[in-house]
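Supplementary Note 3. Input sequence used for the single-chain structure prediction.
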Amino acid sequence: MLKNTLLLSLSPLLLLSASAIADTSKDVKNWVGGVDHLGLTVSNLDSSKVFFTDVLGFKVLGNDPTYPAYFLSNNKITITLWRVKNDDKRVEFNRADNVGLHHLALSVESIEKLSELHEHLKIQNNITIEFAPENLGKGPTQHMMIREPSGNRIEFIARGN
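The predicted structure, written as discrete structure tokens, is reproduced below.
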């Protein structure tokens, strides 16, 4: 019930285009163009890399074994994965209690592709599907949410017509 109430209240905001949200005063300079890359701290660097490359089709741009990190891209977004420095002191992110990345939302080209992706993800054994594709608000946009192998939340969203 809370999830549906939250989605209904957020749906109008999520359905706005970036240009509508970015409508700023003419006196304010627009310093930022877009997302250059996103960095995620992961507990299992290899499993998270395999998820992004073998499951989602990202390519490895490079890595830094001293950091340790992988740099990945699908030609639309670049993601840096780096391993948590001290696993013994690691604290799992709780989106209700911690400041930080609530989730990463990746676009999917159609609702049909979102359904295909869901079927593909169901056969993976190292992720958790929080919810299957469903309408965002009253639709036609649909989304689903998963946790990748290190626990980071990833939303997949297909804008309906």
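The chain is about 25% helix and 30% strand. The helical segments are 2-15, 18-21, 45-55, 111-122.
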